[in-house]
């Protein structure tokens, strides 16, 4: 409840809620650094992180153009970001959203599975598993602010958060489409 109250006070979240409710109708990984300030912002390769120490709420903006496809590198970056936030005792909540227009995440990067080696695909799928397990088991309160389409792995990501809020726009789709793609998530 305290966190909810803090969340409500957070300008970042207020802005996000406004954005959501008013919208009706690719690399080497660099990780964000959290420094002890009242409010700080850091940018890694594919993630912009805003952290408000007064509320303990961090907002992770996915900015991996064009559609936040979850590549091995991007998945690794997400995991490192969550780990760093978890190590910061002043961080209690994490909001995940997208900086890309119309898309939260297009799911797994299909290019990681096309004409790549068995070893690479193994590493890739382990990173997928690590991402969702990290979010699902995180001690942070996690919220997916789904401000665009979120198929497949994007949906998985959202599902592993504690809460999901999705922009009310009929053009935005969410769900698992692996059957349509003829894809079976492998044994990990
Ligand atoms: C809580 C319990 C959890 C338990 C977990 C247990 C098991 C695990 C369960 C599930 C496993 C999940 C398995 C997931 C698999 C996947 O994610 S496979 C990927 C599936 N994704 C898709 O099919 C999405 C395809 N893309 C689209 O539908 C659209 O692109 C869009 C996202 C709706 C955006 O549309 P639009 O804005 O019109 O953009 P474009 O279509 O023009 O695309 C722009 C460029 O982006 C490229 N692109 C799109 N998607 C991907 C992708 N997934 N990977 C790589 N690249 C992608 C697209 O080709 C365009 O590129 P160019 O501009 O043509 O170069």
Automatic annotation (TrEMBL):
User: Keyword set for this entry?
Assistant: Acetylation, Fatty acid metabolism, Isomerase, Lipid metabolism, Mitochondrion, Transit peptide
Catalysed reaction(s)? Answer: (3Z)-hexenoyl-CoA = (2E)-hexenoyl-CoA; (3Z)-decenoyl-CoA = (2E)-decenoyl-CoA; (3Z)-dodecenoyl-CoA = (2E)-dodecenoyl-CoA; a (3E)-enoyl-CoA = a 4-saturated (2E)-enoyl-CoA
Q: Does the keyword Acetylation apply?
A: yes
Q: Which GO terms describe its biological process?
A: fatty acid beta-oxidation
Where found? Mitochondrion matrix
Q: What is its EC number?
A: 5.3.3.8
Asked whether the UniProt record includes Nucleotidyltransferase among its keywords, one would answer no
Q: What does this protein do?
A: Key enzyme of fatty acid beta-oxidation. Able to isomerize both 3-cis (3Z) and 3-trans (3E) double bonds into the 2-trans (2E) form in a range of enoyl-CoA species, with a preference for (3Z)-enoyl-CoAs over (3E)-enoyl-CoAs. The catalytic efficiency of this enzyme is not affected by the fatty acyl chain length.
Subunit: Homotrimer.
User: To which protein family does this belong?
Assistant: Belongs to the enoyl-CoA hydratase/isomerase family.
Q: What is this protein called?
A: Enoyl-CoA delta isomerase 1, mitochondrial
What is the native source organism of this protein?
Salarias fasciatus (Jewelled blenny)
């Amino acid at each position: 409840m305290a966190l909810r109250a803090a969340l409500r006070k957070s300008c970042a979240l207020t802005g996000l809620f406004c954005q959501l409710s008013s919208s009706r109708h690719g690399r080497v990984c660099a990780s964000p650094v959290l420094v002890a300030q009242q409010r700080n912002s850091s940018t890694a390769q594919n993630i912009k992180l805003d952290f408000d120490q007064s509320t303990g709420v961090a907002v992770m903006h996915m900015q991996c153009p064009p559609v936040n496809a979850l590549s091995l590198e991007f998945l690794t970056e997400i995991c490192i970001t969550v780990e760093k936030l978890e190590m910061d005792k002043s961080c209690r909540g994490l909001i995940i959203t997208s900086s890309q227009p119309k898309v939260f995440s297009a799911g797994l990067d299909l290019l990681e599975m096309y004409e790549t080696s068995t070893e690479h695909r193994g590493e890739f799928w382990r990173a997928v598993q690590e991402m969702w397990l990290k979010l699902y088991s995180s001690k942070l309160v996690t919220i997916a602010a789904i401000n665009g389409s979120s198929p497949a792995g994007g949906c998985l990501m959202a599902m592993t958060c504690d809460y999901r809020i999705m922009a009310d726009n009929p053009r935005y789709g969410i769900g698992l489409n692996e059957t349509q793609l003829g894809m079976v998530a492998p044994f990990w």
